[in-house]
Amino acid sequence: MTIGPAFPSVLDAAQAGDRAAIEAIYRDVAPLVIGYLRANGARDPEDTASEVFVSMVTAFDTFKGDESHFRSWLLTITHRRLVDDFRRRGRRPEDPMASEDLGDQLAGFCGDGESEAMARLRSRGVLESLDQLTEDQRSAFMLRVLADLPVADIAAIMGKPETAVKALLRRAFASMSRLLSQEEASDG
Fold first, then answer.
1. Among the residues of 3-98, which ranges form H helices?
2. Cα–Cα distance, 173 to 145 (Å, whole number)
3. What is the pTM of this model?
4. Alpha-carbon span 154 to 126, nearest angstrom
5. 26, 125, 131, 148: most buried, per Cβ within 10 A?
6. pLDDT of 157-183, one tens digit each?
7. Cα separations in angstroms, 56 against 29, 73, 74
């Protein structure tokens, strides 16, 4: 979803501190940010997303551009916060409960659409297939598929040359195709 033609005026209002405009931008991009963080293994996607949005609000006055550039700018911030999350984990490793166990425990409490969607993706092998990708492949794949960003923007967000991003995407799509085909064959 995008704000569309009203984006320049919403952005101007948000940069001036208008709470309704900031909320409109947040509601538009929060699913994208949280989805990217969740798909790339953030420990607590919502917590990391809050850091992203604090960074966004504090840096609003530095942003210039259209809605597409804004999304790229915001995903750059998101990617950096994700890297920060990984670094924190490396310095303070934890022994968390396995996500499968946690999902089973929470299944009785959660009947929301997100849980159902995650269960369907897990049953089709999509989440497990994503886990088989390298960290860089998964990031590039999610930025391309989830955010629908062009290769140039993905390269800027990830700090890699476009040729490297193209190679990551080729490998990621090939791996996903192969892994999902194997999953379908084993189900059939």
1. 7-15, 19-39, 45-59, 67-91
2. 10
3. 0.61
4. 22
5. 125
6. 889 999 999 999 999 888 887 877 776
7. 11, 9, 7
